[in-house]
Amino acid sequence: FYRLPLYRVRSDRVDVIEPTRHPRRNGRDIVRHQLPLPAADVVTIDGVRVTTLDRTVYDVIRSVSLEAAAVVFDAALRNVAWNDTDNTYDADAAERFRAKVNARIRAGSGARGIRQARFVAEFADGRAQLPGESVARLWMWQLALPAPRLQHRVELPGGRYALLDFAWPELGRWAEFDGEAKYTDAELRGGRTAEQVIVSQNEREDLVRAVTGWSCDRWGFAQMPDIDAFARHLRSIGLYRA
């Protein structure tokens, strides 16, 4: 309902909150959680009762892996703060949402997964556009790399601009996460072939390089099966020296 992406989380089952004890057990396609559920935490979307976005995020980031939690919170912040029309980020809106989740975290002191929730709530950034960007940023933080600027705007000739997934101006470098969807998803291609997408991508990269003088690196999930493999890739391109 909120279109929050999943990262290495099963998507073939539904999690249900039941505020009172119920004799029914979990099934292959449903998991029941006995938790308090105030009326204020419930909204109806497309005729279905679901928890509010902040309650949903709070519940999820306590119960999934750290990587999946970062992906969900980043996406939720992007949901409330990113404007697709002019590619701007409303930091105030993001902080208002973060405050809602932090209020739940403070109230839930001692609950399962609350330490992870505290970290994720502080670390999350809605400028991460895709799950791969969220995971890469988390792993770069864990590897103690310099923090990148996300969706860094570079002005191009003719009044155009480019948004860079990760930028390190002080290092003279930027990086792009290459998800397969940009080549395989017809909607994302916008009527272009995969070959045309690659040509356009290369032209954009050349323009950014000409304006900034920076070098560009690219990676995708193929280079990110786990943090150790990602570290080896970053080491191979000179971004990580440990």
Order of helices and strands: EEEEHHEEHHHEEEHHHEH
Average of the residue pLDDT scores: 91
Structural class, by secondary structure, is: alpha/beta
Strand content: 15-25%
Enumerate how many helices there are, as a single number: 9
Kindly report how far apart the N and C termini lie: 42 Å
Radius of gyration: 20 Å
Shape: globular
Q: Into which percent range does the helicity of residues fall?
A: 40-55%
With strands numbered from the N-terminus, the spatial order across the biggest sheet is 7-8-9-10
Model regions low in confidence, pLDDT < 50 over at least 5 residues: none
Structure explained in plain terms:
With about 240 residues, the chain is of the alpha/beta class. Helix content is about 40%, strand content about 20%. The protein is built from nine helices and ten strands. The chain has helices at about 55-60, 65-80, 90-105, 115-125, 130-140, 180-185, 185-190, 195-210, 225-235, and strands at about 15, 30-35, 40-45, 50, 80-85, 90, 150-155, 160-170, 175, 215-220. The strands form four sheets. A four-stranded mixed β-sheet has the order 7-8-9-10. Strands 1-2 form a two-stranded parallel ribbon. Strands 3-4 form a two-stranded antiparallel ribbon. The radius of gyration is 20 Å and the shape is globular.
